[in-house]
Amino acid sequence: NHQQKAKETQAKANLKLLREAIERYKIDHNGTYPGYINGDPTVAFLTSSQLINYSNINGDFQTTKSGSYNLGPYLNKIPKNPFNGENFFTLVGSEGFPSEASETTGWYYKPSTGEIRLNKNGTDSEGVSFSNY
To answer: What is the pTM of this model?
Structure first.
């Protein structure tokens, strides 16, 4: 039970960290959430890269700060989902968040709204759905 509660606490902390980074990115990029480059949707790998690297106002990124690449980084690394050890993002579109967890991703992220959720089925030790974290 202690291990379960520790994972729940870590999941909440990691989500808070991710949400704060996503909001800081949005503020710096004129209201555009990570997940877009020049206004076009990107793939999940690029979304996490936008958070851990330097970026320009259009969302392009690189590992070093120079010239117009002076925004960020917003995180040192993408935190892991403590329940499955994954730190990958799976992008969610208009179809909405999946109802079942996947073994291959840590987080579900909807770039159009900036919403991020834990990839975990069920409820925590207090009966709260993991999807409501």
So the answer is: 0.94
